[in-house]
Design brief:
Elements: E1 4-9, H1 13-24, E2 29-35, H2 38-48, E3 52-55, H3 64-74, E4 79-84, H4 89-97, E5 102-105, H5 110-121, E6 126-127, H6 129-142, H7 145-148, H8 153-163, H9 168-175, H10 179-193, H11 198-207
Parallel strand pairs: 1-2, 1-3, 3-4, 4-5, 5-6
Length: about 210
């Protein structure tokens, strides 16, 4: 069985050397090169064709995000794990979006790091639980407000007309519905927003940015 060939990319020499020592202890992992920035990493990928790249994010000349994008575009078979001390969610989302197979914090235990490298080399995707929770929270916070209350597209339209002060009949005419159908939608809106009347529904919708 061939060793997993690793390229270490970090602007701090101490971290590069430490990771190299830790990983070279593993019998099936071989560090074949180290790069101090993204530009050098791209050049080494072309020359060495590593199996997995451990990529820092914040580096001079070319950061890890740009380097990852270039590597995945030119050599999609090379797997990239973003390895950083930064926990900002935007970096996680962007790195995975451009093709990185994993994201880990530098504080990870060496054995867990080695296990993660093997997983990614076999075709897996690696993201720690903390980041997964943050991503789920981020997605929930950024979903349309109407979806949080379970409002359908039609209910959203009815609510917007209520907010403009239109009567049931006027709303029905705008949406080509019967007045009875509009009343049913309004009752459903009240239930989903947990309000009792039109005034409360409009106020809550405006307060939460639904309309």
């Amino acid at each position: 069985m061939n060793n997993v060939r690793i390229l270490l990319v970090d602007d701090q020499e101490l971290i590069r050397e430490s990771l190299s020592i830790v990983l070279n202890i593993e019998e099936d992992i071989e560090v074949i090169g180290m790069a101090e920035n993204g530009r050098v990493a791209v050049e080494m990928c072309e020359r060495e064709q590593p199996d997995v790249v451990l990529m820092d994010i914040h580096m001079p000349e070319m950061d890890g995000i740009v380097a990852t994008r270039l590597i995945k575009k030119s050599w999609p078979q090379i797997r990239v794990i973003i390895l950083t001390t930064f926990q900002e969610l935007d970096y996680v989302v962007e790195a995975l979006d451009i093709g990185a197979e994993g994201y880990l914090l530098k504080a990870i235990h060496p054995k867990d790091l080695a296990t993660g490298i093997r997983l990614v080399n076999r075709g897996g995707t690696l993201i720690n639980q903390q980041m997964a929770r943050l991503m789920a929270s981020h997605l929930k916070q950024n979903e349309p407000k109407s979806l949080r209350h379970g409002l359908s597209e039609r209910e959203q339209q009815v609510l917007e007309y209520l907010a403009r002060g239109l009567s049931n009949r006027e709303t029905a005419e705008k949406l080509f519905l019967s007045e009875g159908t509009v009343k049913n939608y309004i009752s459903s809106i009240y239930s989903k927003l947990e309000v009792r009347d039109r005034l409360q529904a409009v106020k809550k919708a405006r307060d939460e940015g639904i309309v």
